[in-house]
Each structure stands twice: as C-alpha cells, then as structure tokens.
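Hello everyone,

My group is preparing for a crystallization screen and wants a predicted model to guide construct design. The compound we'll soak is zinc ion. Before spending weeks at the bench, it would help to have a computed complex in hand. I've included the protein sequence and the ligand's SMILES below. Output in structure-token form would be ideal because that's what our pipeline reads.
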Amino acid sequence: MKKLAMILAVLVTVLILSVTGFASGYNYSGYWCIPSDAAIAVEGSVIHPERQPITIDGRILVPARSTFELIGVRTNWYPEREVVMMTKGSNSITMNIGKKAAYVNENKKDMEAPAVLVNGTVMVPIRFVAENFGYNVGWNDINRMAFIGIAAELPSRGGGLSSNRTYKVVIDAGHGGSQSGAVYGGVMEKNLNLDIAKRLDALLKKEGIQTYMTRTNDSTVSLYARSGLANSVGADLLISIHNNAGQSKVSGSMTLYYPGSGKTKGNLSSYEFAKIVQSNLVKHLGTKDMGVIQRPNLAVLRTSNMPAVIAEVGYMSNSAELANLKTESFRQRAAEALRNAALQSLNKMYQ
Ligand SMILES: [Zn+2]
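Reply:
Good plan to model first. Here are the tokens for the complex, ready for your pipeline.
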C-alpha cells in the first residue's frame, strides 16, 4: 500500500507540474518556447510582426523574414531540409531548425537558442542574427522592448514619439457594474467596452505608454471618478470607450467631444483629438462615418482637463454591427484603431 501511495504522490506531482509549471509554453522543434510580450523595434520604429516573439531559455526569437528584411536581410527557407539561410550583401547565416550550431560565412558558431518553426513561421534568435550582420541589440526593461540598430539606442516610439518623455493615457471602459449600458441580444455594452479597453491597454503598454484604466473589471464607477482619475494623474489623453444604440437600420462609428478650446494640451484640442479618433475608427474598422459630434453636457468630457473623447465604436442596435462587435477580431481592430489614434494625437500634442 505504501508503494501505491508513493506512486500516486509522484503521479499527482507530475500532473500539478504539467498544469502549473509548463502551462505557459509550447514545444516547438524540440524546444520549450514561451510567448513573449516583448515589443520589437528596428532602426527606430516599433514593428508589428505577424507572429508574437517567443523566448527559449530567456533568449528572444522573432519571425526571421519580416523582422530582418527591414535591415535588408534576405531570408530563404528550405522546408525539405529544415534549413534557413539569411543573407545580407556578402554575409550569410545558415541555421538548421532545432539545432544550436549555425554557420556564419561557413564558420561554425554555437547559438544560445536554435531557430525553431512555429506554425509555419521560422523564428530566429534576434541577438545572434542581428549581431552577426553587424547590428547592435538593446533591451529596455521599462518598455519591455528589444531594439535592433547600428547605434542600438532606444528608438522613438510608434508614431514618432520621443523615447524620453512619459506619455499618459487614461482608458475609460464605459458603464460597468450596476450600469450595463445598452443591452441587445443578451450582449451588454459594459462588457464590450471593457474588452476593447483591455485590448487598447495592452497595445499602448507595448508602445511604452503609461496607461491608467478607470476600471479593469465589472465594477460601478461614477462619471466624476473617471475624469477625476485623468485629472489627478495629469493625463495627456482620456479615451472613453462606448457602443451606441439607436434605430435598427443605423450603424457606424461616432466620436464625441467637449466643444471649445478649454480641453487643449500642447498642439492638440479635443476637437482635433476627436477627428483623429474618428478617422482611425472608420478607416480601420470599415464602419460608416457617423461623424464627430459636440457634446457639452456629458460629465466625463466636461469635467476632464485634457483632450478627451467618447469613442462610440459601433451600434449594438444594428444586427450586423452587433455580430461584428461579438467577434474578437473586430474588438481587436477597434483597439488597434484607438491605439493608432492615440499615437498620432500624442505626436501632434508635443510637436
Ligand atoms: Zn455607453
């Protein structure tokens, strides 16, 4: 019986380890790969590669072709031999998937992590490849950003933002808790707003922007607490995320702002902020342009001191738009549109 108890204990331990210890990674090409939230910048610009970076033993790997073509590296992939060859000018690096030995101009060199294949994308160790093509690689812990360049200084951020200014954006998920907002087909506006807000938060963090959320869960928050947070942290921008309701045939995106010049910061007025938000939503979502609308009576807009908007992403009362809003990909694109708008607006503010 004692032996059985011991076997059981070992089994339970193995089970717990396999659930907790390794749950955050995947095995690719024989190596344990962990998804990484690191942002990647090449020659001063943040890039958005088609596949998320991974780490193997703490080394960052990035998609070979799309990352390194930005510094003029050509990537050839020979799937039958699982060989990747990267060339720039007269220099070349040849790697075998899952093998740490690489050839740099025919000289054998050992890598700390091998190239691996992740769902059809060849991922290569960023430092090894960059350095062997004569580039430097830097890492910034605050922005969680790896950057490749000749000088390898921390790049200006997406949209040409400065690397040494702290930008602050308050993200307000409309409604929450006892206030559901619009409700159509069992979908509550408060939940759509929060989901888009969280996605925007992650995207802005990736750009190294300091973000604040008025709520991160299904809690009730007063209108004054929302603008109060933005005022108290000295926010550059306040983005309040909502979804609209109206007649069933009406659809599209709309952005609301407080009129006048009172909510201007640097070179950016609330009106200009609203125009940038609106054009990004319409362009990125393909929604109908329902315009930029003055709203002097909305507490969140009226009581905040900085450029502030309410972005009405879509109409929940329109069945086609509600179907879009129910998909993750549409909400992600809404967040991307708002990220792009925030970057452009911050750039204009401090121009
Ligand atoms: Zn609302």
